[in-house]
Input
Amino acid sequence: MENRKMMTVNLMLTLIVLFAFAFQAQAGEVYKLALSVAITGPTSDAGDPYSKGVEDYFHYVNDMKIIGDDKIDCTIRDDQYKTEITKRNFEDFMDQGIVFYLNYSTGSTLALKKDFDEEKMPTIPASFHAGNLVDSSYIFLPIASYSAQAIGLAEYIANNHKDGGIPKVAMFLHPSAFGRGPLKDVKKAVAAGLKIEIVEVVEHGKDLDNTAMLKRLMSKDVQYVISQTVQSPVATMIKDASRLGLVAKTFGEKGKITFTGCHYTGGNDLVALAGPASENFYWTTSYIITSEPGVGTDAQLALAKNYGRDDKFANSHNYANGIMVAQVATEVILRAKARGKKITKDVLYEELLAMNGLNAFYPVTTVGPVTYSETDKAGVDTLQLYAVKNGAFKAVGKPFIPEYTSKIN
Output
């Protein structure tokens, strides 16, 4: 009798194990990813919608079974734009066995650069700082660097300045590596023959009034400002310029200033902050924006609606930014699965390096393809220039690749 009971118990345990394995096989694999991002604190106006883009796209991937019965589990944590918190987050993510990592800030990306290499962790940050790629093998920028963006703006200024002589330009920068990054590369482009004159470099503080700075720029005959910062200080500056009657009504208008900026300075968020003062602000990025109709716009707005986001999130280019990095991570998983490979960080790294030529990736969130290789770890090389016309950003010309980025490299 005792033997029979033991056989029954063993049979039940065996069946439980078999059912568990069968359920696990049916449920599919779970791939651990992670994102550390500034949902609160400085730059949260960009980090919050960015995080929602990542979150919503991965929910969409799982809900629509984009990778079959497998699922992506992406842990998202707020780091408040503090490098020490980001470092702790990354260490904890590694303990969880992640196979792909999404970082956020320039400072933390630079600080953790060696960690990414040591852990052999493929990493896509929200920072487009060109310096992220120096002495790094595992960092991949999603789009063209801030340097390429600033050079693209400088080229447009040089090519469209109609006032005679060399256009005089000021650079308005965030007081950090994030802000300063493009300055040396724009100077390199000037040394290589780009015909602009950098008259002054301003690292903005927390001043709520830019009157003195603007008058000083006017006294130096500055006609153009290239900004590399975030929307809030740009909104303050152009509102002050509008109050003083200094904003150019046409590009390069004599006696006025034409304001321009890189990715994090513009978008629909800037229009909301600056209102009418944003009119004729010129801005460049590699992302589509929802004020321009198209397949990408429709897809972004549909995703936001499906996951209950309000209009501010739905129309933010930083929401698109978050979607795009999640798209790339999903794509490399799909490609590895199609090759019959086990999903590991090493395999996903190999898939990133192979994303070029006929294997380029074409997401609807960007104005050009995503390409990576051993020698090129900046994703979308193509930029689009936009300008505010009648209260909305509209495309100016066709997507382009700055000429001088290749000359200085």
Remarks:
- The chain has two domains: 29-143+292-376, 147-285+385-408.
- Residues 1-25 have pLDDT under 50 and may be disordered.
